[in-house]
């Protein structure tokens, strides 16, 4: 279990545990929210039995566990007995920030069944005082944006890094069938010479070498390819620094069969050579034009 990253995320209600677990999930962790503390050691055993398939785990353990929460320190001791390394990340925020967040979301504090939210926050601080003292890292989220929280996690957990293997989806499409609405970047290649008007190429697609050779032989296509790939090569690392874990690029031509398919395939090859994880989809390649 020494090769397993085991992080326990805890802290004040409203301090950002939900956003934090999402960040950990984007970083490739197997995440469980609101796991009863009594199940921690059993969960660790399951991870061990996975033989390395589950090696990054993040668990949210907090006051929502109510009476079960009292078993936390006993379970942590059990992890130590099994030589399982773990880290505790404690999230907190000022009372004013917590009250404001509960009012904005209109959610009830777990300990405010009948009393005031201010009393519930005070009670929670008392209940979590010992756990806070055992934390490896305490982050005050009172003034943090999500972007800043991501940077904070990267800076303080040396084994947790922003994902430099960003997932990149590239989709070719035809404008006549509508634009994909979920793309981050969209490029129009309808200005390039169209193989549709070459009788011998019309029935082929951008997956065929003949079509690719025809499109890329033109100076305008060569110039565009160099500038296009240079732009993408610049942008992807910037998105990674920003904390983005998925990038969707759409490339469109008239019918989504020749030019867009060609450049989707070429861009995919370019990015794969850069060691990025790439998935391609030719949305309209089989449609009639």
TrEMBL record:
Gene Ontology molecular functions: ATP binding; GTP binding
Family annotation (Pfam families): PapZ_C (PF22740), RapZ-like_N (PF03668)
Membrane-crossing residue ranges in chain numbering: none
Signal peptide: none
Residues the entry annotates as binding GTP: 62-65
Entry keyword Ligase: no
Residues annotated to bind ATP: 11-18
Domain RapZ-like N-terminal: 4-157
UniProt KW keywords: ATP-binding, GTP-binding, Nucleotide-binding
GTP-binding among keywords: yes
Domain RapZ C-terminal, chain residue ranges per copy: 167-286
Domain of life of the source: Bacteria
HAMAP family the UniProt entry points to: RapZ_like
Name of the protein in question: UPF0042 nucleotide-binding protein
Species whose genome carries this gene: Selenihalanaerobacter shriftii
């Amino acid at each position: 279990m020494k090769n397993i990253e085991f992080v326990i995320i805890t802290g004040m209600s409203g301090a950002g545990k939900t956003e934090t677990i999402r960040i950990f999930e984007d970083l490739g962790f197997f995440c469980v929210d609101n796991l009863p503390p009594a199940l921690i050691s059993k969960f660790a055993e399951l991870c061990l039995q996975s033989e390395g398939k589950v090696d990054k785990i993040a668990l949210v353990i907090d006051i929502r566990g109510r009476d079960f929460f009292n078993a936390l320190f006993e379970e942590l001791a059990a992890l130590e007995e099994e030589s399982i390394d773990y880290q505790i990340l404690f999230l907190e925020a000022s009372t004013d920030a917590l009250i404001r967040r509960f009012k904005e979301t209109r959610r009830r504090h777990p300990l405010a069944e009948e009393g005031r939210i201010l009393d519930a926050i005070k009670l929670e601080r008392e209940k979590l005082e010992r756990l806070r003292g055992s934390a490896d890292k305490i982050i005050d989220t009172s003034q943090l944006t999500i972007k800043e929280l991501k940077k904070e996690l990267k800076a303080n957990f040396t084994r947790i890094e922003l994902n430099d293997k960003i997932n990149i989806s590239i989709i070719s499409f035809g404008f006549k069938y509508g634009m994909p609405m979920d793309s981050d970047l969209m490029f129009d290649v309808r200005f390039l010479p169209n193989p549709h008007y070459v009788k011998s190429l019309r029935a082929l697609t951008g997956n065929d070498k003949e079509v690719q050779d025809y499109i890329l032989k033109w100076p305008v296509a060569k110039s565009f390819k160099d500038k296009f790939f240079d732009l993408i090569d610049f942008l992807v690392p910037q998105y990674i620094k920003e904390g983005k874990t998925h990038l969707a690029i759409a490339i469109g031509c008239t019918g989504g069969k020749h030019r867009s398919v060609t450049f989707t395939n070429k861009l995919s090859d370019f990015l794969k050579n850069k060691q990025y994880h790439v998935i391609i989809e030719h949305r309209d390649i089989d449609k009639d034009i």
